[in-house]
Amino acid sequence: MKKHNYSAGPCILPQEVFEKSAQSILDFNNSGLSILEISHRSKDFVAVMEEARALVLELLGLEGKGYQALFLSGGASLEFLMVPYNLMKVDGKAAYLDTGTWANSAIKEAKHFGETVVVASSKPENYNHIPKEYSIPTDASYFHCTSNNTIFGTQMKSFPTTNVPLVCDMSSDIFSRVLDFSKFDLIYAGAQKNMGPAGTTLVVIKEEILGKTGRTIPNMLDYQQHIAKESMYNTPPVFPIYASLLTLQWLKNLGGIAAIEKINEAKANLLYTEIDRNPLFKGTAAKEDRSNMNATFLLENEAHQEKFDAMWKAAGISGLAGHRSVGGYRASMYNALPIESVQVLVDVMQELEKNI
Amino acid sequence: MKKHNYSAGPCILPQEVFEKSAQSILDFNNSGLSILEISHRSKDFVAVMEEARALVLELLGLEGKGYQALFLSGGASLEFLMVPYNLMKVDGKAAYLDTGTWANSAIKEAKHFGETVVVASSKPENYNHIPKEYSIPTDASYFHCTSNNTIFGTQMKSFPTTNVPLVCDMSSDIFSRVLDFSKFDLIYAGAQKNMGPAGTTLVVIKEEILGKTGRTIPNMLDYQQHIAKESMYNTPPVFPIYASLLTLQWLKNLGGIAAIEKINEAKANLLYTEIDRNPLFKGTAAKEDRSNMNATFLLENEAHQEKFDAMWKAAGISGLAGHRSVGGYRASMYNALPIESVQVLVDVMQELEKNI
């Protein structure tokens, strides 16, 4: 039975990515070798890396604007410390917007490197909205924000104009909507939502912001080293990068970010309309900050939980349970989730209403 | 045509690992979902992680001896700095044995954290042997060595007895030979030789050595955090870990490390015997330190290079070119390389002799 995969990440990827990557494990590029056994220095893999790095900049509209794309490892969690290591001046400070669990983890790691100013936090309201009134210290080394909060179902709809470098963790909504990406000086994202399987991390950096901290940085954590080695400072995670390239190619063929944005808006509208209409449900995030990637909602009456859970499971839906910090349900509608899967969920919600 | 894959890493893995992992990308455990789209918190993947961690300790004979196995990311290169971060006391020192390029990289990263004493180095002889006469400062926080030097074709056949924690980078020969692994306090290894595809790093730690430095450590670089979170501090590289589990299962079914050691010795004997016998070739590493994983050798007369290269390529051999630091040839004979592939190379070497 076809599954409707609402997993919050790692998450659904295009079916053609599964098929092509499985084939490449049996025989990559008709080489007689598996993608899992080739050297990362082989001509075929160097071509994968180069195409993936170039395609990222093309899709984001950042070609020829002084940016470099890197495929690293360690997850966004390693970027939580690489960002301050590479950008926070010795005896300097950095500004952070606290919009959820991951923003909080980034703040904790930054504290190892210097003063960390939290300009605003929605923690007292269990992160149900994005703070909008705050000022960023002009002497901060950078301002850091999280564009989408997977756990709490909120998403930044606009970004502040800053006179300090703008750094953004876009792990859970990169490549999902049109933004002026040139506003950002550093973007990072774990692959495992819209870009590919778990195991690689995209970092997009405006090169001119680097090398200004006065710190000595271990090579492996130094963005300038990774740039100098063309994202091959050490053996990269070959297969996750290859599967990410396949996913980026799928996105390009679909029409790029502008095309997927329309689809994502249609999916989110379909589900949020039902959440607002159906008296059995209520959303948890402030309406103006609702995420188009992760819709979080509760049953008005918890007594219906057993019945609802049985119904969506019977419909082939998986991964709908909410995070323990919020409870209820979380429908993650990443790029590769078809609108048909959203319709199945909406149908189940309406069916529940009829059967109560 | 079947390839004989001598790649130095990433490298050949068992054919059944390719087949099972390709299948898991199309449908994992008959779940209707791909291994690439399931949550790392799903029951099925938690079981993968637990089995992989337990199987590592079982294969190394370290069960119940106070060790923890972790599957991290970032490659051995990230361990170059995690080791001093976690083990080098504030204002302390660490002792290193310099046996090649990777040992040297580890030393460079350690210098960021404190005094780094190089107890011996074979660099003046282009790392063609393993230094044996040296003393380890008794006040060092640990002693670090590299068990096998992929580039230079040398391998430590014995390890010093130390009164400080013994740390070893076993990236290129772990699971290839029987050792008393309980002599070691920390072992790390990039997966991409004998354990799996590129993208994860095994760390095996005697837990009692941790937490003694007086340093504060960013969470993501703190072994104690990773242990507390059962190797799931953040989203792990799901697929590389799954493919590593399949490779470890293959090794266990074969009879474990003792069984593969016999096969590896037979392969190495076959090739080194031919290198020593055939007047056209000479080995580059000191005989007593020769690696059973990577055999490095030269043509006595470089004029034969074109002919030899054409012959081994025609025989389906790939990945035989030596590293630029040594030149000539490097035959990497990791666990999954069948002895039949070594025989094909020996046949080509003998064929060349007849045709000169």
TrEMBL record, chains A, B:
List of residues binding pyridoxal 5'-phosphate: A76, S77, W102, T150, D169, Q192, N234, T235
Keyword Coiled coil among record annotations = no
Residue numbers binding L-glutamate: R41
Give the main localization category. cytoplasm
Q: Which reaction does it catalyse?
A: O-phospho-L-serine + 2-oxoglutarate = 3-phosphooxypyruvate + L-glutamate; 4-(phosphooxy)-L-threonine + 2-oxoglutarate = (R)-3-hydroxy-2-oxo-4-phosphooxybutanoate + L-glutamate
Task: Name the family the entry cites.
Answer: Belongs to the class-V pyridoxal-phosphate-dependent aminotransferase family. SerC subfamily.
Described function? Catalyzes the reversible conversion of 3-phosphohydroxypyruvate to phosphoserine and of 3-hydroxy-2-oxo-4-phosphonooxybutanoate to phosphohydroxythreonine.
Mind telling me what this protein is named?
Answer: Phosphoserine aminotransferase
- Source species, please? Flavobacterium celericrescens
Which gene carries the instructions for this protein?
A: serC
